[in-house]
Amino acid sequence: MSDKDLYRPEGIDDAYSHPEPEASSAEEETAPARGASPSGRKVRASAAEATGGPAPQLPALGLRGALRWTWRQVTSMRVALMLLMLLAVAAVPGSVLPQRPQDPAAVLTYLQDNPGTGEWLDRLGFFDVYASVWFSAIYILLFVSLVGCILPRTKAHLQAVRNRPPRTPRRFDRFPAKAETSSTATPDEVVDAAAKHLRGRLRWLPTFRVDVGVEPADPARGLPERRTVAAERGYLRETGNLVFHLSLLGLLVAVATGQLLHFRGQAIITEGRGFANAVVDYDTFENGSLFSPSSLVPFSMTLDSFDAQFAMDAVAFAQSRDFTAHVTVRDPDGTSEQEQIKVNHPIVAGGAKIYLQGNGYAPEITIHDAEGQVAFAGRVPFLPEDTMYTSRGVVKVPDTSPGLDQIGLVGYFLPTAEVDEVGARSTFPQPINPLLVLEVYRGDLGLDEGLPQNVYRLNTDTLTPSVDAEGDRVRVLVAPGETVDLPDGLGTITLAEGAVPRYVALDLRHDPALVWILVFSLGALAGLAVSLFTPRRRVWLRAWSEEPPDGATSDRRTVVSVAGLARGDDAGLQGEVDRLVESLPGTPPTTDPPAERPAAERTTSSPRTDGQARPDRPRKADR
Hints:
The chain has helices at 25-30, 47-51, 62-74, 77-90, 92-96, 104-113, 115-123, 133-162, 187-199, 235-261, 514-533, 573-582; strands spanning 177-183, 209-215, 226-233, 263-270, 274-276, 284-287, 300-310, 320-330, 336-342, 347-349, 352-361, 364-368, 374-379, 383-384, 391-397, 406-414, 417-419, 424-426, 435-443, 463-465, 475-478, 483-486, 491-495, 502-510, 537-546, 557-566. By secondary structure, it is of the alpha+beta class. The strands form 6 sheets. Strands 14, 15, 16, 19, 20 and 21 form a 6-stranded antiparallel sheet that branches. The model is unreliable at 9-45 and 591-623 (pLDDT under 50).
């Protein structure tokens, strides 16, 4: 086969192909033995065999091309979705494993229980996930991907907004939505009415962008001068899409800013006691990496009293009705204000919101060791475990006299105690008959090792419990105003007389990005709604004047043709075209019932066999 017999697309110059030399008759006869194709065509010789020179090489990508390809991959939608999913997966260890900023004691416990695995997890930053290098890398890559995606789309959208609607097509019969009618008005009046209808009532936010034009007459084709209207809507669809992505980008920035500057602390305050807004005065405190303790506003607060109301009726017995903490807040300038903190009704002080998280009882306990020295004195918060305020607490007594064992007590405080042969329990949340029920341990509490411990837990692994002659645990029952001897000669315990003090658990939060997170979240929802529910439509109208036939007595009429096109499926496109036709002046009314059509004769053949529509069923365009 000669080179002239080969098919070469017109206009394409293949710089890497060369004409194949004519093969001799002997070569043609032996071609199948040397690798001819099954069809009998010869395999084209390579460029090196044809010219005797080196084989052609494709151009190298180069550093600039590699960077451009990498940037396009990073800013593509699939990579952005992948990074978003990867960010969600990377956040899972932060909710499964203990985190050092929130609970350092739990991290130490995990490291002690899992020395091998825990060491590697700590090296990889799994105990501080949100500050780790790999989580920050995913976060920054997602940020860069969104920026690289938004900027070119914004530029293209601004250019599209400045462009005019597309010109009116020559033929309307190929569009999915169309209509034709006639009008007694002039073409100018029809075009003006159509433009006004398409623009809508709001001049500052038109429904359609409208462009009015004129098509000159074409005597050769027998076409008169025609007026046209080209309209397009749906630019808000892309605007909403961009607003959604910008809001998502703003959310990333706001969340990152909040994590860097926020602080959150919990403090337990008993009645009559105070609290100062300083890091050392919080029971637990966490903050962002850019937070400075000097930025805390130095206000103070005192819990004056706490009111708790419970139902007394049989239907909702002991159900909580209301909790109110009466506090006095003193500002740095010396002024003070009386405030009330209720559940879900926080107050604001020093730029932080103060929430009422919990409440309970803090009985005042005094413990003397075996030598009669005061080893412990203070209020001990007991945490409620049920609706009757059966509260569990721990008393740790490390400051005993030299040579004596340290003492640990763990048990319950019962506001309204009822004791029988089964045991002791609380029957009402209010302190009607308070009672302490404690178990006693002695030994080394482990507080001198330098490791933080939970004040509401007692590690009994290294302690010896006090038991009676039968080997059962000894339980100490203490009522207000009583002093009871501890077993094994460890000393005595005294519960203060009078009303049992109550405590409140306050949660103080400061996050400067919360308002922006709300704004960007609402913006993302609004942009997504606009992007999903804004149709992208184009509507064209052509109107021209038509002379009446010879001998006719009717006046000159205007013929109107309308067509519509949508991007994607749009069930309301035909309705848009129909509404435009109805708004035109001088058009016949469309509310008249359709004229009756003669019934089609029944035939034995199926209407689908001859390829014609049934005459008694309207066409799809008519419907």
